[in-house]
């Protein structure tokens, strides 16, 4: 891992490559004195990620598809700090430490049995692969520049590197709010969680917890799920339906929820076709899963492009669509119009809304969809990273970050989204993909 240090004039005074190994008892070896003999190190030695299942279900579903369809593909992912938060050398040292600790975890026998029993679309061959999987820290490259900007890239085989995204983001967030931004506390978290499940259930909003990637800590995500599960009212049913986090689904005996991610559509641009990546992504997803995982993600190169390939066959086979960008009301109208155009009853389908939601927004969307199309909600940051500053009503802002696929077999991949500012890719690849979209939509 690349570590750089600058003096107060911005001159580079140290740059070295450091790698840390830990034995089966958790003992550390080859740790530099300057970086790791700090007094607070003893308080930070506990690993943040302790289970390979402390991730979102869609990462495993995508990994199984990669192994079946594209086992020889090489990729690169890159970190993007949308919120422009600043980081420190102390933060970087802890991040390196945690990344190396994660290489110790593996699928336990208990987890293997649980997956086999509760997630039937995972094939035995895949579970055997997962049992032998180990995170490889050498795939992760880190540095912080003199302004405190964090740069991360992940390089290697697609089937291996795909699992880094979720736990790495969770680690980044937890360390940030442990070392850099400490002006917050846990006060009122249980009460706020109860208020949220009450408000959503009272309005019959079926919802899942999607908060792993940007959670403030594993502890708070666990607390929120615990409060959601035990909520009970004599006046209306609990509308909490599960979590994207497999580990917590197993722990709390609830449903694990997830299907596919943008990276699958992005890689398909290179591996199949830039023009019709949606078509080939859906076709290949069916090869692996049939109709078992039936929620599609339409906005990788805009929903308008997706709908061109979302013909009656696909629309019939897939149970619904996930909304992840653009105005939710305009999106709803667009999807309903498309279903009607191909003679499918919208009330037989569902939209899963998951774009920057909170309780109030979900209730508003639920009312809009009533008697038009079924809907459900995946809510993340508003559940697992909703805090105020200490002794204040001012919001403690969560990190706004993503880790997205950047290239595939050396060729750029692009995510356009339906919302300005959520694009991902090189300026040239974004420009090219916008040209592709413009010309395709003309025909």
CATH topology (level 3) name of the largest domain: nicotinate phosphoribosyltransferase
Which strand-content bin applies to the residues?
15-25%
The CATH architecture of the largest domain would be Alpha-Beta Barrel
Major sheet description: 6 strands, parallel
Helix content: 40-55%
Estimated structural class: alpha/beta
Assigned CATH class of the largest domain: Alpha Beta
Runs in which pLDDT lies below 50 for 5 or more consecutive residues are: 1-28, 33-40
Q: Strand order, main sheet: write it out.
A: 9-8-13-12-11-10
Question: How would you sum up this structure, described in words?
Answer:
This protein has helices spanning 33-36, 41-44, 57-69, 89-101, 109-118, 124-132, 158-161, 165-179, 189-202, 218-230, 246-252, 262-271, 277-289, 303-309, 312-317, 328-341, 359-369, 381-384, 427-442; strands spanning 2-6, 12-17, 21-22, 28-29, 74-81, 140-144, 150-157, 207-209, 240-243, 295-296, 320-323, 350-353, 374-379, 387-388, 395-396, 401-408, 411-412. The protein is of the alpha/beta class and 443 residues long. It has 2 domains: 2-23 and 33-183, nicotinate phosphoribosyltransferase; 189-396, nicotinate phosphoribosyltransferase, CATH 3.20.140. The chain has a 6-stranded parallel beta sheet with strand order 9-8-13-12-11-10. Strands 6-7-5-16-17 form a 5-stranded antiparallel beta sheet. A two-stranded antiparallel sheet has the order 1-2. Strand 14 and strand 15 form a beta hairpin. Helix 4 (89-101) packs across helix 8. Residues 1-28 and 33-40 have low confidence and may be disordered.
């Amino acid at each position: 891992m690349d570590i750089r240090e600058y003096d107060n004039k911005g001159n580079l005074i140290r740059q070295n490559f450091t790698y840390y190994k830990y034995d089966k008892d958790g003992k550390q070896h080859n740790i530099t004195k300057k970086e790791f003999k700090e007094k607070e190190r003893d308080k930070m030695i506990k690993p943040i990620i302790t289970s390979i299942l402390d991730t979102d279900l869609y990462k495993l579903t995508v990994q199984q598809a990669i192994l079946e369809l594209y086992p020889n593909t090489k990729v690169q992912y890159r970190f993007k700090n949308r919120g422009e938060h600043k980081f420190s050398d102390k933060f970087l040292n802890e991040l390196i430490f945690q990344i190396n600790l994660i290489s110790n975890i593996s699928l336990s026998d208990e987890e293997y049995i649980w997956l086999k029993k509760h997630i039937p679309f995972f094939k035995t061959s895949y579970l055997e692969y997962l049992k032998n999987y180990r995170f490889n820290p050498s795939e992760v490259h880190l540095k912080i520049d003199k302004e405190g900007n964090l740069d991360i890239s992940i390089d290697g085989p697609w089937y291996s590197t795909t699992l880094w995204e979720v736990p790495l983001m969770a680690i980044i967030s937890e360390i940030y709010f442990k070392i850099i931004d400490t002006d917050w506390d846990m006060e009122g978290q249980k009460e706020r969680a109860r208020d949220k499940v009450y408000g959503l259930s009272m309005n019959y909003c079926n919802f899942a917890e999607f908060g792993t990637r940007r959670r403030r800590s594993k502890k708070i995500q666990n607390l929120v799920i615990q409060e959601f599960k035990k909520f009970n009212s004599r006046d209306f049913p609990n509308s909490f339906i599960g979590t994207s986090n497999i580990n917590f689904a197993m722990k709390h005996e609830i449903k694990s929820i997830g299907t596919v991610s943008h990276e699958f559509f992005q890689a398909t641009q290179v591996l199949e076709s830039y023009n019709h990546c949606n078509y080939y992504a859906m076709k290949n997803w069916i090869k692996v899963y049939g109709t078992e995982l039936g929620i599609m993600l339409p906005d990788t190169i805009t929903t308008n492009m997706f709908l061109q390939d979302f013909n009656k066959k696909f629309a019939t086979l897939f149970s619904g669509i996930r909304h992840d960008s653009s105005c939710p009301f305009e999106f709803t109208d667009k999807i309903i119009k498309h279903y009607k155009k191909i003679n499918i009853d919208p009330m037989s389908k569902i939209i899963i809304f998951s774009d920057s939601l909170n309780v109030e927004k979900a209730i508003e969307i639920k009312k809009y969809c009533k008697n038009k199309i079924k809907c459900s909600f995946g809510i993340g940051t508003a559940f697992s990273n909703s805090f105020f500053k200490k002794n204040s009503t001012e919001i403690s802002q969560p990190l706004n970050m993503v880790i997205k696929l950047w290239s595939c077999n050396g060729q750029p991949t692009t995510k356009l989204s339906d919302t300005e500012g959520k694009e991902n890719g090189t300026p040239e690849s974004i420009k090219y993909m916008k040209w592709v979209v413009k010309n395709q939509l003309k025909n």
